[in-house]
Specification:
The chain is mainly β. Helix content is 10%, strand content 28%. Strands 3, 4, 5, 6, 7, 8, 9, 10 and 13 form a nine-stranded antiparallel β-sheet that branches. Strands 1-2 form a two-stranded antiparallel sheet.
């Protein structure tokens, strides 16, 4: 998601039977706006999508390069410019800019994953320049009445190890909404983030952005425990989803 990635502000047409469709549901339906071939765009960047049930445009980052593209990025950490220690209402609707750090919004994740079956790819980079990934063949989030309950499974290792299974079936927790399983404490407050915390986490993508190994405050960084432990905060942390083919 570096280098040649291009910022695109556009109404990206999706063609069905040769006709333009101006409302792609996700990045897998975003087609090349430069012609009318109906081919999926090969250019990564910011595009508008229209998740089923949402009723309006949502700007997202589309990764069109990784594994044949079509990935909708749901969260991105890369430079620490954005504060992710936020209340429930912010995580509900989303925040940030898709071309830098952002959270797509729990409602949007629900709208997307309730309409069809999705897969999840987590791409991690450390400050030494190494990149690894974790793939999950199934990923879904419930609606707000369920606490945006997470369903994730079918793990395949790409060097990162499995940190998401521990969070399977958990509800989302923020600093002002405690849905985790930790007695007498709020995991979001304890680890300065927001996530589908259990008792509390093996990954903390929405934690405090730090620069590599830092044990000053235990496990508050942007971490992925199976790969780097609790006290290493990653340089880049991308979660992206795509309909299962």
């Amino acid at each position: 998601m570096k280098g040649s990635l291009v910022l695109l502000f556009l109404m990206a047409p999706t063609l069905a039977s040769g006709q333009p469709n101006l409302e792609p549901a996700d990045c897998s339906e975003v087609t090349d706006f430069s012609d009318l071939t109906g081919n999926v765009s090969e250019v990564s960047g910011m595009y508008p999508i229209y998740p089923a049930g949402h009723g309006s445009e949502t700007l997202v980052f589309c990764d069109m390069a990784t594994d044949n593209g079509g990935w909708t990025v749901i969260t991105s950490r890369m430079d620490g410019e954005l504060n992710f220690y936020r209340p429930w209402d912010h995580y509900k609707v989303g925040f940030g800019m898709p071309t830098s750090e952002y959270w797509i919004g729990l409602d949007n994740i629900y709208y997307l994953t309730s309409s069809k079956q999705y897969e999840l790819l987590v791409v991690l980079e450390d400050f030494e320049g190494k990149t690894v990934y974790a793939y999950y063949g199934s990923f879904a989030v419930g609606d707000e009445s369920s606490g945006y309950q997470l369903t994730v499974g079918d793990f395949t290792d790409g060097g990162a190890g499995d940190a998401m299974t521990y969070h399977n079936q958990m509800k989302f927790t923020t600093l002002d909404r405690d849905n985790d399983l930790l007695d007498k404490e709020n995991c979001a407050r304890k680890y300065l983030g927001a996530f589908w915390y259990n008792k509390c986490h093996t990954t903390n993508p929405n934690g405090v952005y730090r620069w590599g190994a830092d044990g000053t405050l235990f496990a508050v960084g942007v971490s992925w425990y199976p790969w780097k432990g609790h006290d290493y905060s990653l340089k880049s942390f991308i979660m992206m989803i795509r309909p299962v083919q």
